[in-house]
Amino acid sequence: MPEDTPIDDQNGVSANPTIDVASVTSLSVQQLQDMKLQQFDRKGNPKQHIAHFVVTCVEACMQSMRWEFLYILQGIKPRTFEELVTRTHDMELSMENYGARKDVPDIPDNLQEDEESESEEEDKILLVEDFILSFSVSVFVILLVTPFVVISLLNYTLGPDRSWVLLFSPLEALFGSSFFNGSFQSKDSTLQSPLEEGTFSTKSPATVSKGVAKRNTRLERVEASLAKVRSSIKEAAQNGNTTSTHEDPDYVPNGLIYRNPNAFHWSYLEMEKLFKIHVYEEGEPPLFHNGPCGSIYSTEGRFISEMEQGNLYRTKDPDDAFVYFLPFSVVMMVQYLYEVGNYGFQDSGHIVADYINVIATKHPFWNRSLGSDHFMLSCHDWGPSTTSHVPNLFNNSIRVLCNANTSEGFSPSKDVSLPEVNLKTREMTGLLGGLSPSQRSILAFFAGGLHGHIRHLLLEQWEGKDQDVLVCKAVPARVSYEAMLKKSRFCLCPSGYEVASPRIVEAIFSECIPVLISEGYVEPFSDVLNWDAFSITVPVNDIPNIKKIPMGISEAQYLTMHTRVKQVQRHFVHNGPPKRFDIFHMIVHSVWLRRLNVHVKELNFEDDRHRLRDNGSTLKGFALTGKYQM
Hints:
Elements: E1 7-8, E2 13-14, H1 21-25, H2 29-39, H3 46-64, H4 67-73, H5 81-99, H6 109-158, H7 170-175, H8 178-181, H9 209-237, H10 261-274, E3 277-279, H11 298-309, E4 323-325, H12 330-337, H13 344-362, H14 365-369, E5 374-378, H15 383-387, H16 391-395, E6 398-401, E7 416-417, E8 442-447, H17 453-462, E9 469-472, H18 481-486, E10 488-494, H19 503-509, E11 513-517, E12 536-537, H20 548-551, H21 555-568, H22 583-596, E13 598-600, H23 605-613, E14 622-624
Parallel strand pairs: 3-4, 4-5, 5-6, 6-7, 8-9, 8-10, 10-11, 11-12
Antiparallel strand pairs: 1-2, 13-14
């Protein structure tokens, strides 16, 4: 081939664009290499020279079956000019090596078979990878979509007002209820307290969605009726008269002994009409469904007995109940379990915890409200400490306690102060009444043991030091304690080891003005009764002035207070069977008011978050609506 082959400078294409393939095939490797180098004369555009040379060589190899060239050139399928130049340079080196040899062996057949086998294996691997990828994507999509479908079915089946805590939406726990409602709503202030370990059950008899929906519907009816009562009580409280405007054949509350006679009377009438209590049947006597009906613990035993044997307010259908009574007796537990030197309240606490675990497992109502619509009753000093073994019982439930000490966790907005009544003979005979005011010769009286620091201060200051203020550890021989109460104007009622004392009710029964000396004590029925109207409260540091305080009360004021004490007696009297407005009904009314303070509803996101954060808790949802004082 001539060395001075003309080049078209304008188009960058060789003037002789074709090469005789036959002549190329007859050339040796060295000759082809020389021919290729001659074309690279640095004139014109080298791109076309290189491309033309590669194509020519490949075609020549295919026609003449010169495999030594095809073997070298088969992999240089250029994509860019730079890649072409690089691979051509590599080819030049290969051509020099192969040019030194006259005989180049053909490509072995087994090498071609291996290449075909490897190609088939690669195809199979690609197919498997494609299958695995498709399967993984499908599984991921299913796992992502399934929770949405399940939650949608639950929401559709149960409705938005479901109240079973076990069916709260995990999406609401992640995004909040406003994520689904489309707006952010302010929520009521809510009680938030952790679930104690062992009292939250994942089992509920309401496992059928229709049953749950039906139960929720009945709960909604209860809450709807309570909402109407709240509204009507607020309306009745607007009447500032000292006498109720509602008709009553037995008694019409009136006077300053009540915070609001009209509101109290209306609330009481609504309670009689609507209130229903369910008593759990689990548990065996004597620790359950039983209690002492005599001694200073008589209030506990008589109430339990009335709830077990009577028909007032009780319902056998738990779905119709407003509250649920836990019928255990702390007094009976102490009687049967206590050993001298041991802390008996720990044993009783474990029994109560086990009992609540049983009812939480068998019934849905404890879990539904975390105990906020349940109540217990105890007149023993160990009552508060016994409930502390079950945090939700201590923090959420309505605790009816004689030992109503705010320094020990008593909460007036949810707990009830229970009067301590000492029925020595189990009867009220001879306990009511006393001498007329003009015949009462003793200004102030107290007789009792050295129980607690307050009594120590009182006896140290006044024992045997004043004829008008009779303070002693015990009454003289052949002198009746009750008789001393009945001829005294003011009866001193200091706290003992605990804040409660039966002397308060003893003073009221004897028509003696109670003088309360205590710290942190919440008076019984103080949500309804105005204790300032018929009693005196003396701070502990005023014990040295215990004579000056009653002496400063005028005769007219004393007579008024005496009349009020007689009037308030009816609310502390035990009757068998109970009579309207007596102590049994007043206890129930106090529970009724606390139930009005609780709204059982579905948990919102904040409640779920606190329940999960506090390790197994959360408040089936319930909100305080404010304390109702009559």
